[in-house]
Amino acid sequence: MLKKRDLHDAPVLFELMSHPEVFPYVRHKASSSDEFYFLTKQTIEAEDRGELISRTILDEWGQPIGTINLFDIESQMGFLATWLGQPYFGKGYNQIAKEAFFEEVFFQLGIEAIFMKIRRTNVRSMKAALKIPYVTLGNESYPDIHSWVNRKEDIYDLFVITKEQYMFHYYGEQEQNEEMLEA
């Protein structure tokens, strides 16, 4: 479902990112395949330096369909950014990718909190965030970060997933699955 970023996926991802329903919401935009290839190379290098974590989202046939990233990592906290190609909207890939990503970053990579800044006008992302049972609104609990993301204009809501919240959910799900198997 997820794999480390790979330059071989750049052409397919560029085509998916270029769709008008996707492009406005992509953090690192590229206007050509060559530029996207260069940005992907920079992303891989930044991950090697510990500045971010980036994965390619794959469909069930192993084809690239989007990316999931943790940017601006500082003090074991970072900002989540995901995008899926338009043909994959509404098919459950976003939720599956987030679960796999959260498991990796919290259990294997030592991340303590994931922030999501969501433009109030981005209805699709807002609905996706609110579907996550362990996400909380962070506008008031992280006022400094909320102010920072809205430093130019007050257009974002801040959501947060802490390692503690995720672990509570994760182990609760494990326990529930074990109980179902015993029944």
Describe the structure.
The chain has six helices and seven strands; from the N terminus they run βααβββαβαβαβα. It is an alpha+beta fold and 183 residues long. Strands 1-2-3-4-5-7-6 form a seven-stranded mixed β-sheet, sandwiched between helices. A hairpin with a 2-residue loop joins strand 3 and strand 4 (77-84). The two termini are 30 Å apart. 26% of the residues are buried.
- Measured as a percent range, the helix fraction is 40-55%
**Spatial order of the strands in the main sheet?**
1-2-3-4-5-7-6
Order of helices and strands: EHHEEEHEHEHEH
> In terms of structural class, how would the helical and strand content be classed?
alpha+beta
Count of DSSP H/I helices = 6
Uncertain stretches of 5 or more adjacent residues: none
Principal-axes shape call:
globular
N-end to C-end Cα span: 30 Å
Strand content: 15-25%
- Please give the oligomerization state of what you see: single chain
Q: Nearest-angstrom radius of gyration?
A: 17 Å
**How would you characterize the largest beta sheet?**
7 strands, mixed
Mean pLDDT: 92
Tally of strands: 7
